[in-house]
Every structure is written in structure tokens, then in C-alpha cells.
Amino acid sequence: MITQVASPPRTERSYAPAALHIRPSRHRGTRASWVLLPDPATVPRTRARIRRQLAEWGVGEEGDVVELLVSEVVTNAMRHSWGAVMTVSLNHGTLRCEVQDTNPALPKVCHAHDGDEGGRGMFLMEALSKRWGSYRVPAGKVVWFETACSARNGGGDE
User: Fold this and answer.
1) pTM (global) more than 0.85
2) Residue 103 contacts residue 81 (beta carbons within 8 Å)
3) What's 82's domain CATH number?
């Protein structure tokens, strides 16, 4: 079921294109999606959501790495776009996270220097994920990563 989300006020930073106002359905089992609106509380709120979702699926120690990587891709989406949709799924021992945002610029791994405040997120993605990538879509881009993840309650092997 698709639900329409109320539009935020049309200001320069808080306007999200209509394509991101559709709230993807939240599936039972091994897939969940959320609309991420540009708000200072979005990143910590998303970390809490992913923690709860991973606990529901019975994901153990790998959850800390997943939470860190989710935090990185969501922070980038909130910093460089006007909204995003995040989807996570767990299938046969692989957790995949996709974040679609409104900025068409693809990320790249940078080598940050001492004292740099940013530039380490994609380096962490490269170091901690099994695979990651990005691709353009008509309304922006999708950044995704995969990690090896086991679920104690059997989730993801359906």
C-alpha cells in the first residue's frame, strides 16, 4: 500500500520533489523502507529505526557496522539533497541498504587529511561493507551498500 505524505513547506532546503513524498510500504519480514525528510533529527532518528529493525530481524554484532554505514549514507543525503527514501532488506545472509536522494552527483572515495571535518564517509563504506555503489535515477541517485549479516530468528532466509 502506498501512502501520500504531507508536503513540507516550500523553502530552499526543505522542499523535496514529489517523487520522494511517496512513503514506500513497510513490509513484514525482511524489508523495510522510510521517507527521510531534511530535518536535524533525521540522522539520529534513522539510526534508532535501523537499530530497532535489526533487533526485530535478530541481527547481532554486525548491527553496529550497519548502523555506522547507514548513518554515513543518510548524513550525506541530508547534507547534499532535499530528501531521501531508505530501504533495507535482509536476504540469505546479506543486508542491503539503499538510499535514494535528490542530488544526482555520485559519491566518491576521498582521502581526508588530518584536521579535515569531512571526507571519510565513503572511505568507511569502502572499508566496512562487502560491496557498495551508486547509480543515477531520474530524480537524483541511489547509494547502496551490502554487508554480511546473520539473523538469529531466521529472518532473511525466506
Assistant:
1) no
2) yes
3) 3.30.565.10
**CA of residue 94 relative to chain centroid, distance:** 15
Residue 20: inside a domain, yes or no? no
Find how far residue 113's CA is from the centre of its chain: 26
- Give me the residue label for grid cell 565513503: 122
Query: What is the secondary structure of 129-141 as a DSSP string?
Result: -SEEEEEEETTEE
Report pLDDT digits (tens) over 111-143.
655 555 555 566 788 889 999 999 999 999 999
Question: Residue 18: helix, strand or coil by DSSP?
Answer: helix
Distances (CA, A) of 142 to 6, 18, 88, 137: 23, 16, 13, 7
In a domain, 141, yes or no: yes
Number of domains into which the chain is organized: 1
Q: Is the dihedral of CA 111, 132, 157, 46 positive or negative?
A: positive
Phi/psi at 38 (5° precision): -70, 105
Q: Where in the sequence is the domain holding 97, given as residue range(s)?
A: 30-109+117-148
